[in-house]
Amino acid sequence: MLTNSKKEHNQDLKEDLEKKDEGCCDDGETKQKYISLPGTKNPTETLLLILGIIFILNFLVMGLFTFRMSGKLDEAISITKPQEGTLLVVVPEECPLCGAMDIEKSFVEKQNVDLLDTRTVSAESEEGQSLIKKYKFEHLPAMLFLSDDTIKSSVKKVLQESSKVVDENTLVWEDKIPPYLNMEDNKILGLVDVIYLADASCTECYDVRQVQRSILAQFGVAVNSETLLDIQSEEGQELLARYTITSVPTIILSSEVDEYATISNIWSQVGTKEQDGTFVFRKNEALGKVTYNDLKTNKVIIPEKE
């Protein structure tokens, strides 16, 4: 009897195992084990939970990326957007030849700026006096670029090469190209008096006013006054003796021309600077093919014809 009971027990155990196998897998399929997360009832819920987590993480990452890219985009737009501002030029009315800083103004206008207002302000006006006091100008004309916003580094980098940074909203230019008003002693510097010294007896000699006037203009010299003298006149004779002039026609420039570095730096090649500051032109041959009178030999020098 024990043997029969044992056989029956084994038979029941075998049937139970077969039933479990049938409930686990379909015919011909490989048996698989599913791992369930705590709190889930079946594999489908586990898969949905994992997909949900991935979606949330992806949403957060994309949101952070979008936020950062938006900031970069705003920064790029800000850099390319023109710098808004106002341009003011302060000029002294007592110096009509001092100009209005047109070169500097043109340079600023060519940059990435949007000028909301451009005005010329008289130094003698209430506004002009207020600007002079506030920014302590040393020379006039002077120019200001004023902005309600902080001046961008890209704009400042270009403009500050020729200007002075006062604060994050202001740039200042002071004109040092003659003529200009020196605020320390309230004197206008760079207005040159010119004396043209000619020889009326030399009808072949070059026209000193025509030739020398054009040369001075090329160097940007602001002429305050012009005087034409003949060497036979009393004043002419006095100038010949004072500066030991040996070649005419010639010109004599007042000391104010020293403000023009382009001329003063090369003047030794064509003339002399006298002890009283006067500049005397002495080398007519430097003008090229012109006819002039050599007073040392008392001969008219005529250039050779080609």
From TrEMBL:
In this chain, the stretch annotated as Disordered covers 1-24
Transmembrane stretches, start-end: 47-67
SUPFAM superfamilies cross-referenced by the UniProt entry: Thioredoxin-like
Name the source's superkingdom: Bacteria
- What InterPro entries does the entry give? Thioredoxin-like_sf
Q: Which UniProt keywords apply?
A: Membrane, Transmembrane, Transmembrane helix
Designated name of the protein: Thioredoxin-like fold domain-containing protein
Tell me the organism.
Candidatus Magasanikbacteria bacterium CG_4_10_14_0_2_um_filter_37_12
